[in-house]
Amino acid sequence: MDVELLRTFIEVQQTRHFGRAAENLFITQSAVSARIRQLEDELGVRLFMRDRNNIQLTTAGQKLLRHAEAIIANWNRARLDVAVGDDSGQHITMAALPNLWAILIPDWLQWVQRQHGDVAISADALGPESILRRVLDRSLDFGLLFEPPRLPELTVTESCRFRLLLVSSQPQAPLEQALGLHYIYVDWGGDFAHQHAQLFPDAPAPGLRLGLGAAALELLASGAGAAYLAEPQVQPWVEAGRLFPVPQAPVIERQVYAVYRQDTDRREIIETLSDLSGRIDKLQKPPLPLP
């Protein structure tokens, strides 16, 4: 099967539009239609339900999507492995939750380049379900998650820990005020949600919920409010007197877990690279943006 057929299938699924898929793939719309027809003929099923303004996957298309993504990911990995060559060491693919990128990954990548220059890295930011699926189908060597999965095929180890601090744009903000009208709830995973509910059972429902700590940090830096943010993320802002820890607010600790297949043949390098416990205290402080 031509890999380009699967790429076209995935692009149509993502855009829900043959014309936009053609633009993204730099081919004609008729070529997109021809590729989809060829793929349907090879599989003997319809992959899309085509209405004038609504393109949806059929049941068969939904089943194919997961396999198509795995095939493309593995093909890309194979190309990278071949390109790395015998003299350039190993190629490792990893992914982390988006909320971990601003905190850990840029510094970690620099450390890998300095200490493990013979290792080529492909890194991505993905949601937890995508990370687990891609580790299971071997298109990722390891992933970094907040909640440890319980699957017999996977090995789970603690990668690192960091603290979440309740910080406010106002100095000496009372806890009740910080959790009030301008509180920003950041999604730090299910365990955080459970602890948050136990610690603040009477707090009002937050007016704003965000999936990214970096987005909350930008909002706090430009206006009034408070949020639980990662200590490495906010430390430069606190030291510069632009954000302030809320007195009496409890500190919440977050664990980060590395997950990889038990039967991997790259266990040694994965264990070395995924242990970030020694990196938290050595993180380079990002420069503050100009006021």
UniProtKB/TrEMBL annotation:
<feature type="domain" description="HTH lysR-type">
    <location>
        <begin position="1"/>
        <end position="58"/>
    </location>
</feature>
<dbReference type="InterPro" id="IPR005119">
    <property type="entry name" value="LysR_subst-bd"/>
</dbReference>
<dbReference type="Pfam" id="PF00126">
    <property type="entry name" value="HTH_1"/>
</dbReference>
<dbReference type="Pfam" id="PF03466">
    <property type="entry name" value="LysR_substrate"/>
</dbReference>
<keyword id="KW-0804">Transcription</keyword>
<dbReference type="InterPro" id="IPR036390">
    <property type="entry name" value="WH_DNA-bd_sf"/>
</dbReference>
<keyword id="KW-0238">DNA-binding</keyword>
<keyword id="KW-0805">Transcription regulation</keyword>
<dbReference type="InterPro" id="IPR000847">
    <property type="entry name" value="LysR_HTH_N"/>
</dbReference>
<protein>
    <submittedName>
        <fullName>DNA-binding transcriptional LysR family regulator</fullName>
    </submittedName>
</protein>
<dbReference type="InterPro" id="IPR036388">
    <property type="entry name" value="WH-like_DNA-bd_sf"/>
</dbReference>
<dbReference type="GO" id="GO:0000976">
    <property type="term" value="F:transcription cis-regulatory region binding"/>
</dbReference>
<dbReference type="GO" id="GO:0003700">
    <property type="term" value="F:DNA-binding transcription factor activity"/>
</dbReference>
<comment type="similarity">
    <text>Belongs to the LysR transcriptional regulatory family.</text>
</comment>
